[in-house]
Design goal:
The chain is of the alpha/beta class. It contains 14 helices and 24 strands. Strand 4 and strand 5 form a beta hairpin.
Length: 509
Amino acid sequence: MDFLKKLGIEDTNHGTSTGQQFLGDGSQQTITSHTPVDGSPIADTTVTTREEYDQVIETAQEAFKEWRMVPAPKRGEIVRQIGLELREHKEDLGRLVTYEMGKIYQEGLGEVQEMIDICDFAVGQSRMLYGKTMQSERPEHRMYEQWHPLGITGIISAFNFPVAVYSWNAMISAICGNVMVWKGSEKTPLCGIAVQNIIGKVLKRNDLPEGIFNLITGGREVGQWMTEDERLPLISATGSTRMGKEVAKTVGARLGKTILELGGNNAIIVSKDADLEMAARATVFGSVGTCGQRCTSTRRLIVHEEVFDELKDRLVEIYEDVNIGNPMDEDTLVGPLIDEQAANSMQRALQEVQEAGGEIVYGGQKLDKKQLDGGHYVRPAIVKAENDFDIVQEETFAPILYLIKYNELDEAIAKHNGVKQGLSSSMFTLNMREAETFLSARGSDCGIANINVGTSGAEIGGAFGGEKETGGGRESGSDAWKAYMRRQTNTINWSDEMPLAQGIEFDVE
């Protein structure tokens, strides 16, 4: 396909890079990337060997010595150029995201636009790495704080956002003066290679050293090298809660830092005072977008009993018209699940919720592979359930929407918060008191809380992340840049005396 050639994707690709140079001579093991569109192979990628990994880390360490001394606005200039290069490749990279991951083309384009947006944001942030000036209690002393880069930022990203989440970390970390080592999902290795090719053009044009933006490829073993490696002071990991707990345990044991973006079990509360059409449309995008494979996907809909049936019927009506098919086609709204494992997980969840007493209102079936090119296509499901069902308490990475009734607002909030995850949340209401209650300390316990906006589709300007088993990390906007730096408090004595703090007298002859 033409877009693969434009992005530098070949039949066999090297999966290890130190910026402009790809390494691969030592690797005999390969990963074959398959498209979820029809299950066919796209290309092979070599898996990073231990020797290559150590070479990458050593190259990154050397690059850090130079990169950290480049003025932050100059680092921002490099990120600005990366954003321009991404603009040039937006359509092709969007197609690759769609082809390798399975989200529809509009979402693929949107993911690349997120990369462009975070580059723009990071350029501005490069001139705003602010510290504070404090008042000293000692005369003729000045106190202030400043921020310094950490070193190597290890980035582990997931298949569902194969390029955007990397950029949230990499572009902010880069303007902070760090160098990056990125391991993407083994399910979407070609996206990583394409991004590395794009960034490599900018590095070469500016005569920058190898080792600033690095790529490694592989599965759990390669990720474990990163988490155990004391040369990586920060690991930012996106994935399941199970994976995140292992990362936190390993990195914490060596007193390293982590940014964890893990599972979500996101809910929308729909009040009897809501605009139901707005609520329905936001719910559909949140629940079926990316075929339910977003960490911010809407999984629970907690609806006031007075409008429950009306909203249920409207959702079924919309679901019936959702076009399921090849994500490369412009009129498709729901593409395939990533693989057979995901499809089977959805079926197990539907069976379990029925055994618990739930009722499938609509959908849930696997669709005929012959009619849909051989990919793992499913019909999104709507299920009446109770919030305390074991399966409802879990995150199933598939398009299943659980409908749950409530009567009083406090009951709705208790159900909303009554799960282990705490990423994204929303309430639809035109009642100001309800809205403010939901956003107050007694309301949503999630890292993201919205009114009359769905759970999915966060903008890059705000800090992204959640609480509880979602991990507690923050990426992207606001002051998330601080996670990639170390804080230093400085005191300068410009007097000819040596007073001590707290008025301590300690005279020596």
